[in-house]
Write a structure and sequence with these properties.
Elements: H1 11-14, E1 17-21, E2 24-27, E3 32-35, E4 38-39, H2 44-54, E5 61-62, H3 63-70, H4 78-92, E6 102-105, E7 109-112, E8 117-120, H5 148-161, E9 163-167, H6 174-186, E10 193-197, H7 207-215, H8 225-232, E11 237-242, H9 248-261, E12 265-271, E13 281-284, H10 299-303, H11 306-317, H12 328-338, H13 343-356, H14 358-366, H15 386-395, H16 399-408, E14 415-416, H17 417-424, H18 430-442, E15 447-449, E16 456-458, H19 461-474, H20 477-495, H21 505-525, H22 532-548, H23 552-568
Length: 573
């Protein structure tokens, strides 16, 4: 039935025959796969599976037959095969641009369906470029913007504590940073770095087997964790567990076991929330710095911000030509601020400039039309659009967390815990509200600002746009808007007079965060379907604050609007 390991090479490959399909060439006798002449790094098991499938194109291979060929004389579960096939499909770009290589035959097995050609070769294809074989590690970016200090800090943290998780919002650049750290440590560890993409693993029970398979172990136990730890016990290496958030419990148990049982192994994980495992240190990756609102930027000032550097590089790589000296600096700064410095969002926005121009791209962002902008075709599906990234995160939330996230979208910019508790407290008790906000912050769906005496929370603008779309379908927008307006009316009545006695600009700046919400509440109150009675009281409470901040035109505008409403009909005040 199955081939033995010493019979794994097909007779054709013994004659140095190359199998070509799409942009790929497979030389089984040399265990080498190239794409357009550049070697593709594949793990040993994935390469065995490809050789078995491509050597018999258009011929169904059962799961048992494939497992016998890839793992001769060893019994493994179907999960190991699924993991290797998933990794192989990712390496080939199966499904991108209509390319089809391996299809799943329901309840039967797999079949290689791409057209193939065979030819003799006279020389060995060129060696791998950009990464060593069998590490599973993606190529390092030619230039990574704004993260050099993070690479250095992570390398030092790994040396000191051995176990670090990079935590941050979707699209902020966690994987890119982990790959850069992995490449930095290749030389010190003599190439003993292994990158495990857990984004292709669905079943938490398959996590230990997936890692063992990448290392090259063939384990027969139902739980391979003890044997895996024993194998790693005396080894010195770096394990990179990428995209852990959907498998957080399973990865935490495995990482904790390796940390305790293999003292020379370092672990670097990426996740949208911490693993909360013994020995773990958390490295929170913040968005790229961007200019403050209202900042006057020269071209030199603009280029000092990593977010703007990334935007310019990505826009120019797509053929756009920007002139910061001619006023583009303010527009680019505004775009980077609008997407909160999130690297994926910056790249997606920059990719539109060649098609729409800079000004139109900025306008489209204001209209919330960016969630479906497409990025790199080679990116994982969950990272090809902002919506896909947010869908991935939203799908991992509990029902309570989803409901709270949708409702928090009513806030503009930062908000306090008191504000959230008031707006959400209509049908949720306080304990559940606190638990949900803590959970959303831990999962990087809500940002926490601890710079002032009072903690403030905020949905990144892209997250808020996404949550608003969901809220319109699942919540009562008028109900939320009324609670929001009522809270800020009360807040102004309690604190408005204090604006006249604040001792510093910093203190006043903290209160300015709330003014954006006051303005939004006033807009809703005096719009069709709003509550003009609350609006009148809100305008009266806000007048002194606007006046104290020298916003005379705004104070006049809302006072006039309130008087018109009073004259237009009966309002109970």
């Amino acid at each position: 039935m199955g081939w033995k390991r010493n019979a794994m090479v097909h007779p054709a490959s013994e004659a140095r025959e190359a199998i070509s399909f799409g942009p790929f060439t497979l030389v089984a006798g040399e265990r080498l796969l190239t794409r357009d002449g550049v070697a593709v790094a594949l793990g040993a098991r994935a390469l065995d599976a490809l050789i078995a499938l491509a050597s018999r194109p258009n011929e169904p291979l059962s799961k048992h037959e494939l497992m016998a060929q890839v793992w001769p004389d060893v019994t493994v579960g179907e999960g190991s095969l699924r993991f290797q096939i998933a990794g192989l499909r990712k390496a080939l770009g199966d499904g991108l641009l209509g390319a089809r290589y391996i299809v799943t035959l329901e309840a039967r097995g797999y079949c290689f369906v791409a057209p193939v050609s065979r030819s003799g070769i006279d020389r060995r294809p060129p060696p791998a470029a950009g990464r060593p074989a069998d590490t599973g590690m993606p190529n390092r970016l030619g230039r990574m913007v704004g993260r050099d200090e993070s690479v250095q800090a992570l390398s030092e943290e790994l040396a000191a504590s051995r176990f670090v998780t990079i935590v941050g919002a979707g699209g902020v650049g966690k994987t890119t940073l982990a790959v850069a750290v992995g490449h930095e440590m290749l030389a010190p560890l003599d190439g003993a770095v292994l990158f495990v993409d857990l984004g292709i693993v669905v079943d938490p029970r398959l996590v230990p087997g997936a890692v063992a398979s990448m290392i090259g172990l063939t384990l027969q136990a139902d739980d391979p964790t003890p044997a895996l730890i024993d194998h790693l016990r005396d080894r010195q290496m770096l394990l990179i567990f990428d995209t852990c958030e959907h498998l957080v419990d399973a990865v935490a148990r495995l990482a904790e076991g390796i940390y305790a049982g293999a003292p020379r192994v370092r672990i670097l994980a990426t996740s949208r929330e911490a693993l909360r495992a013994e020995g773990e240190r958390v490295h929170r990756l913040q968005p790229l710095p961007f200019p403050a609102e209202g900042a006057v930027l020269t071209a030199a000032d603009a280029r000092s911000f990593p977010s703007i550097q990334l935007f310019l590089e990505r826009a120019e790589s797509q053929g756009a030509r920007l002139n910061l000296e001619a006023g583009d600096a303010a527009v680019v700064g505004g775009i980077c601020r609008k997407v909160d410095g999130v690297a994926l969002a910056i790249e997606l926005a920059a990719g539109r400039v060649a098609s729409f121009g800079l000004q139109q791209t900025a306008m489209l962002l204001e209209q919330r039309l960016s969630l479906l902008w497409e990025g790199k075709r080679t990116a994982p599906p969950r990272q090809q659009t902002l919506k896909a990234t947010l869908d991935w995160s939203y799908g991992l939330l509990s029902d309570l967390d989803r409901r709270v996230l949708r409702r928090l979208a009513v806030f503009i910019g930062p908000f306090t815990l008191d504000a959230a508790r008031y707006v959400l407290g209509r049908d949720l008790d306080q304990a559940r509200i606190l638990a949900a906000i803590e959970s959303l912050a831990a999962k990087s769906m809500v940002a926490v600002d601890d710079r002032g005496p009072t903690l403030r929370y905020q949905l990144l603008d892209t997250t808020r746009a996404y949550a608003l779309e969901l809220s319109a379908a699942a919540e009562d927008p008028a109900d939320l808007a009324l609670l929001h307006a009522t809270y800020y009316r009360g807040w102004l009545e309690r604190t408005g007079a204090a604006w006249l006695t604040l001792s510093s600009d910093a203190e006043r700046g903290l209160q300015l965060f709330e003014l954006a919400n006051v303005r939004a509440a006033l807009e809703w109150c005096f719009a069709p379907g709003g509550d003009a009675s609350v609006g009148i009281e809100l305008a009266a409470a806000a007048a002194g604050v606007f006046w104290a901040r020298c916003h005379y035109a705004e104070a006049h505008r809302w006072a006039e609007r309130a008087v018109l409403e009073l004259n237009a009909g009966d309002h109970v005040l």
